[in-house]
Amino acid sequence: MLSRSILKQAVLLRSVKNAATNLKQIRNGGHGTWTYRAPPPLASKKETLLAEGLGGLCWWWILYHIATEPEHIYGEWPYIDPSTWTNEELGIPDDTAGPLKK
Known about the structure:
It is a single chain. By secondary structure, the protein is an all-alpha fold. The chain has helices spanning 2-23, 45-68, 71-74, 87-90. Helix content is 53%, strand content 0%.
């Protein structure tokens, strides 16, 4: 009888401890540092250099391809000179037609 009550107390105490640890809020799933009303900690030198290097690589890729393959921006069709278009292509009636002819 005594051992049964001790066992119940031990189980109850263990469940209370587990409940206390489960109630703690872990921000961001435990990844990184979480701060409230304070500036976040600075990134390490390695992370800063890696971010700068990847950003530089991305900008090099973009600017290199703009300089060497401008068709991606301007299109791949040849430029047409608008002065070569006829009135018919533009939908403009002839000067001799219409109510203003003399």
